[in-house]
Amino acid sequence: MNAQESTSTRPYLIRALYEWCSDNGFTPYVAVSVDETVQVPREFVKDGEIVLNVSFDATSGLNIGNDFLSFKARFGGVPREISVPIERVIAIYARENGQGMAFPAPAPSASPMLNAAATPAPAESSSEDRVVQLVSTEVNPSDLPEPPKPAPTGGARPALKRVK
């Protein structure tokens, strides 16, 4: 197997940084470039992107596979199923200090899975087309998209009511 045939390093790096965040008590966030292949609450998408808290406390059934990142979470109190193709994840970072990694943004067209049948593969490409340069592992938190804000609850704090 050569470098062209090997699997992407993106899911492995995402898993490693998720584990690093968790081990150090940080909150892992992922920034996602949204298109029709991404299953997220559209009302929280801003400028074609969404930031998701993927911490253990915020998700249920988190699975960071080689092809998809998926989990269940509540948005404004409503449970949702989230499914993100790994190639649509553009960054993973710790909310507290912004340390993490950014990835090259996916092509503006639909995902490669959708284009594979419609677009013939290029006859030949240079190795320069496949090189990805990672500039820094530290991210300035002010440069990152804002995480989604919870829906207002009318000013009242949630409370439990005992029913007999």
Task: Tell me what you see in this structure.
By secondary structure, the chain is α+β, with helices and mostly antiparallel strands. 13% of the residues lie in helices and 25% in strands. The chain contains two helices and seven strands. It has helices at residues 10-23, 112-118; strands spanning 28-33, 49-53, 60-64, 68-75, 78-85, 89-94, 100-102. The strands form two sheets. A four-stranded antiparallel β-sheet has the order 2-1-6-7. Strand 6 and strand 7 (100-102) form a beta hairpin. The radius of gyration is 18 Å and the shape is globular. 18% of the residues are buried. Residues 110-137 have low confidence and may be disordered.
The rounded distance between the terminal residues' Cα atoms is 66 Å
Sketch the major β-sheet.
Answer: 4 strands, antiparallel
- What pattern of helices and strands is seen along the backbone? HEEEEEEEH
Main sheet: strand order? 2-1-6-7
Features:
164 residues, four-stranded antiparallel beta sheet, three-stranded antiparallel beta sheet, 13% helix, globular
